[in-house]
Amino acid sequence: MCARHVTPRCRGCGCAPGGGGRGGKHRGKRRPLARASAASCRGAVLPPAREPAWSGMGSAVPSRAPRAEAPLAILRRLLAALGLLLLLGAGDCELHTSCGIQKCTTDFVSFTSHLNAALEDFDLEFCKALRAYSVCTYRNAKVCRGNLVYHSAVLGIGDLMTQRNCTKNGPISSTNSEMTHDLCNYSGHTEAREHQGGEEIPPPTYLFCGLFGDPHLRTFKDHFQTCKVEGAWPLIDNKYLSVQVTNVPVVPGSSATATNKITIIFKSYQDCTDQKVYQAMTDDLPAAFVDGTTSGGDENTRGLHIVEKVSGKYIEMHARYIGTTVYIRQLGHYLTLAIRMPQELIMAFEESQDLQLCLNGCPSSERIDQSGYLPLPVMGKLLPWGTASHPRSGYTLETATTKCHEKMLVKDIYFYSCVFDLLTTGDDNFTAAAHSALQDVEALHPSKEQWHIIPRSGNDGVGRDSKFFVSLGLLCLILVPYLYDFFRLLTKF
């Protein structure tokens, strides 16, 4: 029964032009819908009578009072029909709970409720609202397929746009509804909240997390750690996104591991995307989600999409609806990951989701580094652990330092991670991994001042202590004469 009601207007409902028979008295004209036909065409929206097009010279001058009530009457008729359809459709046609047509209609009402038909800009603002309504219905086309209310609304919008001579392309309403902004653009969400609140809202804070090498982890708090974390571990797990990595041992006899599998779940969000799952493994870095698609939601809005930068070696994922960017690379036999995400979304998680390496770092039992700093060898000596594997690496401290210095001039934590990885594995690809990780930081980290993390070494600590004692000694030398005079003065009393 529902199928015949969702076909184009009036088809099969006894209200076709020409009165439904040959030679009828209404041949070539649109006959008004009969009451009997209304029962069988339950919920069909009455098309508004069209005004004659302007045929004179020059621009059409909008009249004032005579046509002031026409669009409002049409709007009231459309909304009343849609309301009736909501009631009748619930009994005859199953309404899809995921269909957002009711929200589209509610937003359209908010766009137009404040308009005054007597004002000159009424047509302009009304057309903006209709375009916003049309955009909303277009985004819901897939989930609302077969919904009588949805199809009636689409037909009604078309009639109203024709009636008001609205173009399909043009500006969209800019009232105080979030609907006027791009729902699938995170920056649009913040603009909408600012507009609704009437006060300036500070721009969103973005945070960065990266994982590369043996593996080395840079958390959202800019803490740098080197961890064992063998097996599957969650990097991120919140309301919007889940990221899990799997690490395997790199060299027998060493506690160091590296990432060979990454799984990312983009969770369903409004009309922007259905749930999408991405999975990458060593020698399998696809440019598509597991379902074969390369984007989520509407192709036009591009709220979520994958971009292949280097085939099989480097992809980017852009989730505009949550302001998140993900880089995944394969260098050698292992994977690296870098992600930038808004802080307020990062913190949207339940208490049971507290095990997140990007947020809280590795458990202390899984740490290899010492308080965030790698205990690199000094004076040409090898690292104290896993020494049996180092001779097989083919690198000494000096040769590893020279090799890493070719890619990285600044001796920051990425440079020392490169040295550590070369001494541990002897795999030159880890040099490229550290260099690429630094490039990802420069591309995604919001604060340039924090790109480089300079580690403290044992020698630096000694140097600081020495400077302290030298300064203290100089201070004492300066104070001694004054203290001498002070005590001499006391003895006189």
Can you give me a brief rundown of this structure?
With 493 residues, the chain is of the alpha+beta class.
Show the helix and strand layout.
Elements: H1 35-40, H2 70-92, H3 101-112, H4 122-139, H5 148-163, H6 186-197, E1 206-212, E2 216-218, E3 224-226, E4 231-237, E5 241-249, E6 257-266, E7 276-281, E8 295-296, E9 304-310, E10 314-319, E11 324-331, E12 334-342, H7 343-346, H8 357-360, H9 390-393, H10 397-405, H11 413-425, H12 429-444, H13 458-492
Structure description:
With 493 residues, the protein is an alpha+beta fold. The chain has helices at residues 35-40, 70-92, 101-112, 122-139, 148-163, 186-197, 343-346, 357-360, 390-393, 397-405, 413-425, 429-444, 458-492; strands at residues 206-212, 216-218, 224-226, 231-237, 241-249, 257-266, 276-281, 295-296, 304-310, 314-319, 324-331, 334-342. The strands form two sheets. An eight-stranded antiparallel sheet has the order 3-2-1-12-11-10-9-8. A four-stranded antiparallel sheet has the order 4-5-6-7. A hairpin with a 7-residue loop joins strand 8 (295-296) and strand 9. Helix 3 packs antiparallel against helix 4, helix 10 packs across helix 11 (413-425) and helix 11 (413-425) runs antiparallel to helix 12 (429-444).
Largest sheet: 8 strands, antiparallel
Helix content: 25-40%
Unreliably modeled segments: 1-69, 84-96, 175-181, 194-198, 377-391, 458-470
Number of strands: 12
Question: What's the arrangement of strands in the largest beta sheet?
Answer: 3-2-1-12-11-10-9-8
The SS-based structural class is alpha+beta
Average of per-residue pLDDT values: 74
